Amino acid sequence: MKKRVSVSMLALAFVFTFVFAAGQAIAKDMTATDYKAAAEKVITDVSVSEAKAMFDKGGCIFLDCRTAKEYKMGHVPGSVNMERGLVEFYMATKVTEDKNAKIIVYCKTGGRSCLCAKTLLEMGYHNAVSMTGGWKAWEAAGYPID
What we know:
Elements: H1 2-26, H2 32-40, E1 45-46, H3 48-57, E2 60-64, H4 68-72, E3 80-81, H5 87-95, E4 102-106, H6 111-122, E5 127-131, H7 134-140
Parallel strand pairs: 1-5, 2-3, 2-4, 4-5
């Protein structure tokens, strides 16, 4: 009887520890601004002029993480459109499996692309960066658009 109680108590302690630890990892009261600030600490931003130089040089993927509707209204020529919420599911099958590919992520102003670049880094894409200012900065600079 004592052996069963000990095993049961150990199992119960494990469950409580796991639930408490999981709750700590999930129970954060973060805003969108907090998420972006946390992402900015781990990603690399490139200016729109740096992104244009990379565009001119070639050999990189421009990933537009805006909605399909936004993309149809104008985008960087040759860019691939994949909404931010789908990147985890389709990046490897629809864009590239190459974890060393140079990827410039952009959105309208830089918020979604920042979060998307962080996601790509977490997925092992070592050269994913976010374009500061996003589509608005590209368009305002007078760079080519489709």
